[in-house]
């Protein structure tokens, strides 16, 4: 391999593929927002809706524990979905701001495999660089 081979200019992703990934990102965004709305409903629900009483809290200690656990679980799921939404929004910004570099690995600059981007349209790293990152975290 010569020096010119290693500095080959990588062709930008075809417009049709960019449109495909934009569609995938927007679909994921809609799904996450819908899911976050569901979690909002859990946070907003009251005991009154469940058993007809006028208090928003249960009086029995076991019920209070269950209610607290359900709220905490809903919060954790909503938090994960919120982070995922942030990553999707970042990918959409990259796609709109510089479509010529969308799909390029942020570490090595090579194209991220179509299959990887199709599975994770917000991916910023190729599989090799992501694996290296994960391995470094384990050490």
What is the top-level CATH class?
Mainly Alpha
What do the pLDDT scores average to? 81
User: What best-fitting shape do the alpha-carbon axes yield?
Assistant: elongated
Instruction: Count the DSSP helices.
Output: 6
In short:
The chain is built from six helices and no strands. It is mostly helical. The N terminus is likely disordered.
Structure description:
This protein has helices at residues 3-6, 15-44, 47-51, 61-97, 114-119, 127-138. The relative contact order is 0.13. Helices cover 68% and strands 0% of the residues. The protein is mostly helical and 139 residues long. It has a single domain (13-45, 59-138), classed as Four Helix Bundle (Hemerythrin (Met), subunit A). Helix 2 packs antiparallel against helix 4 (61-97).
Entry keywords:
single chain, 139 residues, mainly alpha, Four Helix Bundle (Hemerythrin (Met), subunit A), 6 helices, disordered N terminus
Topology:
Blueprint: H1 3-6, H2 15-44, H3 47-51, H4 61-97, H5 114-119, H6 127-138
Helix pairs in contact: 2-4
């Amino acid at each position: 391999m010569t020096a010119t081979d290693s500095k080959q200019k990588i062709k930008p992703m075809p417009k049709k593929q960019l449109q495909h990934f934009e569609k995938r990102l927007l679909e994921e965004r809609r799904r996450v927002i819908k899911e976050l709305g569901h979690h909002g409903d859990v946070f907003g629900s009251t005991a009154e809706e469940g058993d007809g009483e006028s208090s928003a809290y249960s009086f029995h200690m076991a019920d209070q524990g269950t209610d607290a656990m359900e709220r905490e679980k809903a919060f954790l799921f909503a938090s994960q979905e919120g982070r995922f939404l942030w990553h999707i929004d970042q990918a959409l910004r990259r796609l709109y701001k510089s479509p010529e570099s969308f799909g390029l690995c942020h570490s090595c600059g090579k194209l991220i495999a179509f299959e990887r981007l199709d599975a994770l349209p917000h991916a910023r790293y190729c599989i090799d660089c992501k694996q290296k990152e994960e391995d470094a975290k384990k050490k």
